[in-house]
Design goal:
Elements (H helix, E strand, L loop, with lengths): L1 H15 L7 E4 L11 E7 L3 E8 L7 H14 L14 E11 L5 E9 L4 H6 L3 H16 L10 E6 L2 E2 L15 H17 L26
Parallel strand pairs: 5-6
Antiparallel strand pairs: 1-4, 2-3, 4-5, 6-7
Length: 223
C-alpha cells in the first residue's frame, strides 16, 4: 500500500510538472543539508492552536533527514511525552524515507514519517476533540514542514501511524499528503506573536528559553 501511494504521488507530481524538462525523483535525504535557515518549534495554544514559537538551532551542515529526526524527537519529548492524565507515552517518530523530485527551478522533497505509538495514546488523548485534534494536527504539520521557509523544509509529508495509513478522524484528515500551504498561516502568526511579545515595554527582551513548552488537552478518551 505504501509503495503504491508513493508511486502515485510521484506520478502526480510528474504530471503537475509536465511543462518542465525531465524532472527526476531521487532518494537524497543524506546529501541535502538544511543550510542557513531558521527552524522553529511551537507550543500549543487553546486560543491560537499554535502558541509561542522558538528558534530551533541546528548546525547549517545538518542533513534534512537529521533535521527531521531532531524535530520529531522534540515533539516526542515535549508535546507527546505525557497524556493530560500525566501518564508517560512511548510516542516517537521514525523517518521512513525522503524522496527528492528534481525540477529546473528547485528540488521538491517528500517525506514519509511513521508515528510509532504502541499503546495508541494518540488516539485516546491527542487526536480526540475538535480543538485538541486541530492543535495536534497543526503541531505535526508546522514542525515537520517548516512552512514559513521559502522553500519549506519539506514540500510534502505522508504521516503513517504504527506503519499504516491513518484512518480518517472526525476533526482532522491525516490520510493524504500534508502540504506547507495548509499550515503556513498559523505558523507565521505564531512566529510573529512570539517576536512581538518577546519585547516588553521597558525595552528588555525576554529570553526565549524562559518560554515554557505548554501542553493542553481538551478531550478525554470517552469523547
Amino acid at each position: 500500500m505504501l509503495r503504491l501511494m508513493l508511486a502515485t504521488l510521484t506520478i502526480a507530481i510528474f504530471f503537475n510538472l509536465e511543462c518542465s524538462d525531465n524532472p527526476e525523483a531521487v532518494r537524497s535525504e543524506h546529501s541535502q543539508v538544511i543550510g542557513e535557515v531558521t527552524l522553529y518549534t511551537f507550543s500549543p495554544s487553546q486560543k491560537h492552536l499554535l502558541g509561542y514559537s522558538q528558534p530551533f538551532s541546528l548546525p547549517p551542515n545538518t542533513s534534512v533527514r537529521e533535521a527531521i529526526d531532531k524535530l520529531g524527537q522534540h515533539l516526542s519529548e515535549g508535546y507527546f511525552s505525557k497524556t493530560y492524565a500525566n501518564e508517560l507515552t512511548d510516542i516517537h517518530f521514525e523517518v521512513i524515507g525522503i524522496d527528492e523530485i528534481s525540477t529546473p527551478s528547485r528540488p521538491f522533497r517528500i517525506a514519509v514519517i511513521d508515528m510509532v505509538d504502541k499503546n495508541q495514546d494518540a488516539m485516546g488523548y491527542f487526536f480526540q476533540g475538535s480543538t485538541g485534534g486541530q492543535t495536534t494536527y497543526c503541531l505535526i504539520g508546522a514542525t515537520f514542514l517548516q512552512p514559513h521557509l521559502s522553500p519549506p523544509l519539506l514540500d510534502g509529508l505522508i504521516l503513517l501511524y504504527n506503519g499504516e495509513i491513518l484512518p480518517e478522524l472526525d476533526h482532522i484528515d491525516l490520510t493524504g499528503i500534508l502540504v506547507p500551504r495548509s499550515f503556513q498561516h498559523v505558523a507565521e502568526k505564531a512566529i510573529r506573536r512570539a517576536q512581538r511579545e518577546a519585547a516588553i515595554p521597558n525595552g528588555h527582551t525576554v529570553n526565549a528559553q524562559n518560554f515554557s513548552y505548554l501542553r493542553f488537552f481538551t478531550a478525554s478518551p470517552s469523547n
